[in-house]
Amino acid sequence: MNSIQNIQQLREFLTVYNTLSERCFNACARDYTTSTLTKDEGSCVSQCIDKQMLVNRRFMLVFAEQAPKALFKQGEQSPTEAIKSASATKSEPVSPPESTQTAIVEEKQFVWETISIENTNFQAMSIISEHGFRMDGRRPAQIRNINTRLGLNRNAEGSCYLEHGNTKVLCAVYGPYEGKASKRLEDRCAIVCQYSTTTFSGLERKNRPRGDRKSTEISRLLEKAFESVILTESFPRSQIDIFCEVIQGDGSNLAACVNATSLALADAGIPMKGIASAATCGIVETKPIVDLTSREETDLLPRVTLATICGRDEVILVELQNRLHIDHLSVVMDAAKATCADVYECLAVVAQQHLKACAPILGN
Amino acid sequence: MEVHISDDEKLFLISGVEQDIRNDGRTCADFRTIVLERGVLSGTNGSCRVQLGQTTDVLAGIKLELESFDPAAEKEAKQPMSFHVDFSANASSQFAGKGGDQYGEEISAAFQVAFSRSLDILPNLSKTLLAEGYRWKINVDLSVLQWAGSVPDACSLAIIGALSDLEIPEVEVAPDDGGKVSIVLKRPRTGGNMRDEEVPVAMWKLDVQSCPMLLTVSKIGSANLVDCSPEEECCIRSQLLIGVAKNLNDDDYDITCIKQHGGGLLEMESIQDMTELASKTAGGLYQAIEKRLKTEEKRKPGHSFLL
């Protein structure tokens, strides 16, 4: 990648250089008797270069402003089309002086070529290095470190703090208690979930911690998932509240919430079919990568969040972001299932250790 | 967390505090144990977590933002900090949904007032104004993770902690075309053969010695209390939120705002007594914070704070 870029840069530089020298020669060189520049020619050249450089700089500024927009709203267009269509809108605000037009047109095309080369290799190059490592040094099938602490919230029946690398989630479980009459079910308990993120959790500051479309969607997903894990028939006419707060989000937020919630439910002593575990997986050029970070969660990369019970084949939640090719589906699902099993092992150890630590208090 | 206590328990509590003895053994002017940790979140420009008595737990995170404003529209310079307090549903199920919004907004507004003169109070805050029309906006966001009384007190300690942890990049301002300015991060040359973008950006820190804080002073029976527990909050007749700032010139404490929370009536003399108690407590708190900020160890990157 580096060498391609270098060659591109060199070629670009040479074009600018050659165009400049040819134009200067045609416009300013009048005296062919000496091998050095005369005084007049010298000043003429420096003026020309100044002019050229100013226009060039201005052009690059506008380009830098417009290029990211073109890259991110591709939709149906292929990368090259998107850039070409962007160029149509882009060339309007800048109207360079007539005399420098030709040089600039050439310059422009070269920049497009560089961008389109980068863009086609964009996914594979930036996410997995040529040596097979990801940006944070992990292998494609490696999960981040999981750290947990149970029972740190004294007001809640069960609580859990869980870290997946830099993703930090706090979960509290309240209940089962006699909840609101409007939510009451005669044959089983109602599960109420709330997913919220602190306003400083992401890269950009958010204005609202909850209530936006994304948070509501994740809340409903968690609700549905845990309705099929908790033995809801054991608590008719009651309610269990699950509150997840993402303190710091660095990718795989939903998976971290599922993991934190199942540990918090275990801490609360609520009967379940098993400990649920979840993982987010993506696919880069037919190679699955697991436990994505926020830098890997791009708009281009398809990603699947899968949750299973006890790492077995009982799926309780599947969520897909972006488009995934049908041929890749089985690969991603297999990788996700395997990762869920791995995560389950970690969670099971945590739950067992916590139970052992509680044994003296419980009197056994 | 809703606390229900009986009339007899209330009577016991009230007659206790009138003799300067509280249920947990403190006197009326005592705070619970304070735990203050800084630099807990790597994704923020400054962060702090404060625990009061191991039950009230507040997390503060600061995000900086380069803000452009219209200098003609502002008569006098606006202070660059904005506060937002959010009650996490984790703290109590009564805060689920919009449950905590009202109290959160009330506290945020009180902080906004308490800090309204902060350009005059904090010695180097005016450095956040970069050029005509550009300034650093300091977004201070607080999340209440556990709730057991005295949230404003915990919040103000967390704000001071986070502000002292905040690192603001140094910038170079150069005039540009059309009367605009270009703002570039300042990277001091160290002499090594690093590329320009690898040189770390120079940072500066705020001086928080005199940072305003918001204290709750509550009237229970005839006594004035600071840092109430949830049981004591059930017996409150009237509560004041008092903004106190250290005056660096004469080592005294200025009152920056007073706000009543909840109902109840107060006599003029009581208000006098309560503000006096607030500035007395503030003195102790400023000392304790200063000591803590000096002695606190720098955390390693990747430190996980709740474990």
From TrEMBL, chain A:
<dbReference type="InterPro" id="IPR018336">
    <property type="entry name" value="RNase_PH_CS"/>
</dbReference>
<dbReference type="GO" id="GO:0000177">
    <property type="term" value="C:cytoplasmic exosome (RNase complex)"/>
</dbReference>
<dbReference type="Pfam" id="PF02953">
    <property type="entry name" value="zf-Tim10_DDP"/>
</dbReference>
<dbReference type="GO" id="GO:0006364">
    <property type="term" value="P:rRNA processing"/>
</dbReference>
<dbReference type="InterPro" id="IPR020568">
    <property type="entry name" value="Ribosomal_Su5_D2-typ_SF"/>
</dbReference>
<keyword id="KW-0694">RNA-binding</keyword>
<keyword id="KW-0963">Cytoplasm</keyword>
<keyword id="KW-0698">rRNA processing</keyword>
<feature type="domain" description="Exoribonuclease phosphorolytic">
    <location>
        <begin position="142"/>
        <end position="271"/>
    </location>
</feature>
<dbReference type="InterPro" id="IPR001247">
    <property type="entry name" value="ExoRNase_PH_dom1"/>
</dbReference>
<dbReference type="InterPro" id="IPR027408">
    <property type="entry name" value="PNPase/RNase_PH_dom_sf"/>
</dbReference>
<dbReference type="InterPro" id="IPR035427">
    <property type="entry name" value="Tim10-like_dom_sf"/>
</dbReference>
<dbReference type="InterPro" id="IPR004217">
    <property type="entry name" value="Tim10-like"/>
</dbReference>
<feature type="domain" description="Tim10-like">
    <location>
        <begin position="3"/>
        <end position="64"/>
    </location>
</feature>
<dbReference type="GO" id="GO:0034475">
    <property type="term" value="P:U4 snRNA 3'-end processing"/>
</dbReference>
<dbReference type="GO" id="GO:0071028">
    <property type="term" value="P:nuclear mRNA surveillance"/>
</dbReference>
<comment type="function">
    <text>Non-catalytic component of the RNA exosome complex which has 3'-&gt;5' exoribonuclease activity and participates in a multitude of cellular RNA processing and degradation events.</text>
</comment>
<dbReference type="GO" id="GO:0005654">
    <property type="term" value="C:nucleoplasm"/>
</dbReference>
<dbReference type="InterPro" id="IPR036345">
    <property type="entry name" value="ExoRNase_PH_dom2_sf"/>
</dbReference>
<comment type="similarity">
    <text>Belongs to the RNase PH family.</text>
</comment>
<protein>
    <recommendedName>
        <fullName>Putative exosome complex component RRP41</fullName>
    </recommendedName>
</protein>
<dbReference type="GO" id="GO:0071051">
    <property type="term" value="P:poly(A)-dependent snoRNA 3'-end processing"/>
</dbReference>
UniProtKB/TrEMBL annotation, chain B:
<dbReference type="GO" id="GO:0000176">
    <property type="term" value="C:nuclear exosome (RNase complex)"/>
</dbReference>
<dbReference type="InterPro" id="IPR015847">
    <property type="entry name" value="ExoRNase_PH_dom2"/>
</dbReference>
<dbReference type="GO" id="GO:0005730">
    <property type="term" value="C:nucleolus"/>
</dbReference>
<dbReference type="InterPro" id="IPR050590">
    <property type="entry name" value="Exosome_comp_Rrp42_subfam"/>
</dbReference>
<dbReference type="GO" id="GO:0071028">
    <property type="term" value="P:nuclear mRNA surveillance"/>
</dbReference>
<dbReference type="GO" id="GO:0000177">
    <property type="term" value="C:cytoplasmic exosome (RNase complex)"/>
</dbReference>
<dbReference type="GO" id="GO:0000467">
    <property type="term" value="P:exonucleolytic trimming to generate mature 3'-end of 5.8S rRNA from tricistronic rRNA transcript (SSU-rRNA, 5.8S rRNA, LSU-rRNA)"/>
</dbReference>
<dbReference type="GO" id="GO:0016075">
    <property type="term" value="P:rRNA catabolic process"/>
</dbReference>
<dbReference type="GO" id="GO:0071038">
    <property type="term" value="P:TRAMP-dependent tRNA surveillance pathway"/>
</dbReference>
<dbReference type="InterPro" id="IPR027408">
    <property type="entry name" value="PNPase/RNase_PH_dom_sf"/>
</dbReference>
<dbReference type="Pfam" id="PF01138">
    <property type="entry name" value="RNase_PH"/>
</dbReference>
<dbReference type="InterPro" id="IPR036345">
    <property type="entry name" value="ExoRNase_PH_dom2_sf"/>
</dbReference>
<feature type="domain" description="Exoribonuclease phosphorolytic">
    <location>
        <begin position="30"/>
        <end position="169"/>
    </location>
</feature>
<dbReference type="GO" id="GO:0034476">
    <property type="term" value="P:U5 snRNA 3'-end processing"/>
</dbReference>
<keyword id="KW-0963">Cytoplasm</keyword>
<dbReference type="GO" id="GO:0034473">
    <property type="term" value="P:U1 snRNA 3'-end processing"/>
</dbReference>
<keyword id="KW-0271">Exosome</keyword>
<dbReference type="InterPro" id="IPR001247">
    <property type="entry name" value="ExoRNase_PH_dom1"/>
</dbReference>
<comment type="similarity">
    <text>Belongs to the RNase PH family.</text>
</comment>
<dbReference type="GO" id="GO:0034475">
    <property type="term" value="P:U4 snRNA 3'-end processing"/>
</dbReference>
<dbReference type="Pfam" id="PF03725">
    <property type="entry name" value="RNase_PH_C"/>
</dbReference>
<dbReference type="GO" id="GO:0035925">
    <property type="term" value="F:mRNA 3'-UTR AU-rich region binding"/>
</dbReference>
